[in-house]
Amino acid sequence: MSPLPLLGFVAWSGTGKTTLLERLIPLLGQRGLRLGVLKHTHHDFDIDQPGKDSHRLRQAGAVQVMAASDLRHALIRETPEGEPSLAALLARFDASALDLLLVEGFKHHHFPKVELYRATIGRPLLFPDDPDIIALVSDTPQASPLPRFGFDELEAIADFVCAWLPRPGARQPAPPLRLCARLLAPLLHPAGLASVPGVLSQDEAGVLLVRPADGSHDEANCLIELPPAPFSPGERVMIRPLAGR
């Protein structure tokens, strides 16, 4: 469909897709990604301003108007024939200048997506019927085999995106995947260590759980990052899944 990697963010209206992307994009930029965004809207939107020269020319009857300067340019095109296809819209992007295209909306098309879910919206989850959804951002625990993040876990979401993204010839390696999990047992602080082996699991509600591995009985499947101060059971800690586990 596109030479660019695509990652969609889909949800029912009012969930906060644009707000999350607005907060996530700077973190992805700090990780070295050059980003584009394609946003779908159902509204009769207009990015032009009445009274500006470009708007006057459109009002005069021009069906395509490009405004250009030394900093940026924009093409405004009327489409009375109907909405362009997703493939046609993707073709408008300069793939050579981008590492990842974030897509807001277009939830019925087939490409990898992250679902955003708020229980207060009162609409069903999308991921059970959409195999293209690879992760879930929700305000309540959900029974799901997918990686799940809270809306405020922006650093963890950014790390997930970088770990997922295939980037041949990338300028810097993607950081390892980090997830948040609820601690099940006291976490000791061995001197000189930044992390300890852990055993990661998931409860029936989809909440990630972790406990320090017992070296004589357990096979560790993650590393628990040691926080600055001791953590008690029930608190959330950052973990890094071990490859192949």
Structural description of this entry:
The chain is an alpha/beta fold and 245 residues long. It is built from four helices and 13 strands. The protein has helices spanning 17-30, 53-59, 86-90, 154-164; strands at 6-10, 35-39, 64-68, 73-77, 100-104, 113-117, 133-138, 148-149, 179-183, 195-202, 208-212, 222-225, 236-241. A six-stranded parallel sheet has the order 2-5-1-6-7-8, covered by helices on one side. A five-stranded mixed barrel has the order 9-11-10-12-13. Strands 3-4 form a two-stranded antiparallel ribbon. α1 packs across α4 (154-164). The longest helix has 14 residues, at 17-30. The radius of gyration is 22 Å and the shape is elongated. The protein starts with 5 loop residues before the first strand and ends with a strand. Residues 7-139 form the Molybdopterin-guanine dinucleotide biosynthesis protein B (MobB) domain. This is Molybdopterin-guanine dinucleotide biosynthesis protein B.
| Gross geometry | elongated
Any idea what the radius of gyration is?
22 Å
- Succession of helices and strands: EHEHEEHEEEEHEEEEE
Task: Quickly give the structural class.
Answer: alpha/beta
The CA-CA distance between the termini, in Å, is 32 Å
| Individual helix count | 4
Strand tally is 13
Biggest sheet strand order reads: 2-5-1-6-7-8
> What would the average pLDDT be, to the nearest integer?
83
- Most strands sheet: 6 strands, parallel
The level of helicity is 10-25%
Domain Molybdopterin-guanine dinucleotide biosynthesis protein B (MobB): 7-139
Protein name: Molybdopterin-guanine dinucleotide biosynthesis protein B
